[in-house]
Amino acid sequence: xxxLSIRWRLTLWYGVSLAVLLCGFCxxxxxxxxxxxxxxxxxxxxxxxxxxxxxLGLAENAAAFKSAATxxxxxxxxxxFLVSDDExxxxxxxxxxxxxxxxxxxxxxVSTDVVFTTLQLGELGPYRIATASLxxxxxxxxxxxxxxxxxxxxxxQALQWVMTGLLPIGVxxxxxxxxxxxxxxxxxxxxxxxxxxxxxxxxxDRRIHVANPHDEIGRxxxxxxxxxxxxxxAVSEIRRFTADASHEIRTPLAVLRAEAEATLRSxxxxxxxxxxxxxxxxxxxxLGRLADQLLHLSRYDAGILQCAHxxxxxxxxxxxxxxxxxxxxxxxQVTLHCELNAGCEVLGDDIRLSQVFFNIVxxxxxxxxxxxxTIRLRLIDQWAVVDVEDNGEGIPDPALPHVFExxxxxxxxxxxxxxxxxxxxxxxxxxxxxxxxxIDIRSQVGVGTIVTVRLPAVGTAVPIAVNEHPTxxxxx
Length: 476
Prior knowledge:
Blueprint: H1 6-58, H2 62-73, E1 79-84, E2 90-93, H3 100-106, E3 115-120, E4 126-134, E5 141-148, H4 150-198, H5 216-265, H6 270-302, E6 310-313, H7 314-324, H8 326-331, E7 335-340, E8 345-348, H9 350-366, E9 372-380, E10 383-390, H10 412-418, H11 424-434, E11 438-444, E12 448-458, E13 465-469
Helix pairs in contact: 1-4, 5-6, 6-11, 7-9, 9-11
């Protein structure tokens, strides 16, 4: 069964179900027909017994009754009649085919009410017999009315044979109709299969036509279209990522090669060799950072970079990040403030979280020359909320939706000067999501930027303590 197509399985299930229903219907119909035959037969027998009782009541003696009964009931198309006294002597018999003694012993109990029995009378076949004891002017008489069941049974048997012959024909017709209807119903599925088989990586913009979005096939087509759309976006992202990564890797490699070739062309002074080696070392370090960032992103994408679930004190972690970036802040003439909520803890990986806030604060310092950067830590509704706010150049509104995209730069020239590849915020976002948190950016050009990270908190917070690390440098 599992090797058959859905069309044939539906057809067979439909045929089997219909065959069972038809068999049940025929069986019930035969039982009802049999019951109705006996009901109508008994009604006719009861009426004939009543008519005989009328004749018995009118007759003055047995001879008068026999004469009247012979004239009225002597020849009947369906019924046979037998009237006898208490001693078993026949007062009237419409036919001599029946043995009186046999009917007397097997005709049922004698009662004023009509009693019905079914007897097999030898070669005569089955008979339905109505028996009653009725009064007359010459004593109580046993009245019996008989009707042969052979014609009725023949009619029932003929109906049975008709049903037996028509049942397989009906099932075969049902199978044919079911196969046709199943084909019509599954035709959209074949269309979905054909379109899905025709779609490959070169034509991901193709979609399945949805004739009726409200039925099962329509919902399946919509789901497949949504899947193809996500696949198209993923492939486009992979292509863009590959192109950007190739470009980013090729740039430092080109610098390394050009510097090495220029150094090898002619003899140089030790100072020139030292300068060339510093360029090579810087580009190699840049290439190494890019490789590390790409490795981190690929691990996050693959889900193999597992985050530890340890209690992390965000206050101490942000203090460490602030101290690590003090030298960079001094070089950029940036004043770095920390407003930290002591005792605020989260479950996570302190190394990954340090990388998150290091990237965010580093970006803020690089884009706020001569300004201020403030790190705030608060506890709001069981969420640890970290704001990194600066009063730098800000981010244009068209660029805000793209800042977390890989290799995206608001100002590519300045990013290259600072050594950034546009992966810092992408890594930060992946790490925050891995910690079941959220990250978002609000910015206004010329006013500043606020990056907000929300992480599920544990423990209880205490009032905010202001801890400022000013790095005041001379401003030109």
